[in-house]
Amino acid sequence: MLTIIIPIYNEESILPELHNRLENTLASVAEEFEIILVDDGSRDRSYELMKDIHRSDSRFKLIRLSRNFGHQIALSAALDAARGDAVILMDGDLQDPPELFSQMIEQWKSGAQVVFMVKKSRKENILKRAAFRLFYKILHSLSSIEIPMHAGNFSLLDRRVVDVLRKMPERHRYLSGLRAWAGFTQVQIGYHRDARFAGKPQMSLRRLIKLALDGIFSFSNVPLRAAIYLGLSAALIAFGGGLYVIYEKVFTDKAILGWASTIVSITFLGGLILMTLGIIGEYVGRIYDEVKQRPLYVIREMVGFDSSAQ
Ligand code: UDP
Ligand code: MG
Hints:
The protein is α/β, with parallel strands linked by helices. 50% of the residues lie in helices and 17% in strands.
């Protein structure tokens, strides 16, 4: 059996079409399926629509979280409930075409444990595309493991990889990175990412930046080390400046002119110190979140699972 997991947050305008597209594609695939829709605390009619979908086809199972936890957590909740021998992760806004399932399953059957989909193109505005490119470049060059560029959540994971991901307790989850960390045989397929079928993106700029920072700070200690190098170069520059000041004082009579350089170096150092503290703070904050050991998510309701899953 295969499991498809889809996070849903305020997607009432998309759910009927999502249901149609899934029914159509799944009819042409030989495997047996369960589809887990996770309601990530939607405030519109999404959950009612999801219940209708479940009533018309019991292969659709529902998890309702107690509030909005964010889509990485919603996916993690579904991974915990998934029973399939392989799990396909996709977005609920039809940016990831279900028609590609058969290709993904084919790769899985011929031995891949991870099939991840790489975006060859996106239909978003220039600014957003540039920001994504910059993020993947930074992540790629800083991270301690090889995280493929332009690979998002859309992927197929073998049961063994799912079990590895489920054993990762971290709260700041960047699934594409964790997936790369897991290893095994990973195969990529290129695809053209569609525009959103309807509605507005539910990932606000703030959430995207948060996800990008989770990606970078969870997979790299380079920013922490950069603070050391920055501090070191600042100290060197200050030392050079100091020599110059002493020279002025001893060999010329213009020593009083030092005011400008004092101000410059104070502000420069102040800036560096604040920046360094900020970087350390990022990691400390993450350590704090991890030691609290709170559960990743809280489930309000599960529909369609047999009792052992709950
Ligand atoms: N989503 C979610 N919780 C959130 C934000 C988004 O479950 O807090 C879902 C959303 O319903 C969609 C998927 O995650 O199915 C991707 O969201 P979106 O399309 O807004 O993100 P983008 O395509 O801009 O990355
Ligand atoms: Mg989207």
